[in-house]
């Protein structure tokens, strides 16, 4: 599954609409049965950060469920923090998902 394939799944799942808080899509990837999108937003007064980053997680077939919603996280103040979170997603997380 290429990054273009993953981006297509996110576009189809979310009707080509970016995340409202972090609309700038930076990167896409796959880990086991999970795919992720790293995105960024700016202008968050009171946070002390120029940007905020979020990681959205879906199953490889684009399914959103409680498990993937629980894995999706936002509020990272640096891209490095968000990428550390992505790295922390384990294959156990993906193997515990039930795919049709």
Can you walk me through this structure?
With 100 residues, the chain is α+β, with helices and mostly antiparallel strands. It contains four helices and four strands; from the N terminus they run αβββαβαα. It has helices at residues 3-13, 66-71, 79-88, 91-95, and strands spanning 24-31, 34-42, 51-59, 73-76. A hairpin with an 8-residue loop joins β2 and β3. The longest helix has 11 residues, at 3-13. It is globular, with a radius of gyration of 13 Å. The chain starts with a helix and ends in a 5-residue tail after the last helix.
Spatial order of the strands forming the largest sheet: 1-2-3-4
Uncertain runs are none
| Main beta-sheet annotation | 4 strands, antiparallel
Overall geometric form: globular
By oligomeric state, this entry counts as: single chain
Integer average pLDDT: 84
List the helices and strands in order: HEEEHEHH
Portion of residues in beta strands equals 25-35%
What is the rounded distance between the termini? 18 Å
Count of helical regions: 4
Total DSSP E strands: 4
Secondary structure category: alpha+beta
SSE diagram, text form:
Elements: H1 3-13, E1 24-31, E2 34-42, E3 51-59, H2 66-71, E4 73-76, H3 79-88, H4 91-95
Antiparallel strand pairs: 1-2, 2-3, 3-4
């Amino acid at each position: 599954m290429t990054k273009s394939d993953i981006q297509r799944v996110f576009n189809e799942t979310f009707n080509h609409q970016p995340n409202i808080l972090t609309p700038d899509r930076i990167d896409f990837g796959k880990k086991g049965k999970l795919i992720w999108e790293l995105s960024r937003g700016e202008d968050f007064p009171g946070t002390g950060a120029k940007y905020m980053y979020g990681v959205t997680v879906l199953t490889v077939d684009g399914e959103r469920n409680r498990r993937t919603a629980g894995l999706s996280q936002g509020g990272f103040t640096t891209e490095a923090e968000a990428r550390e979170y992505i790295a922390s997603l384990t294959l156990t997380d993906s193997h515990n998902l039930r795919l049709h």
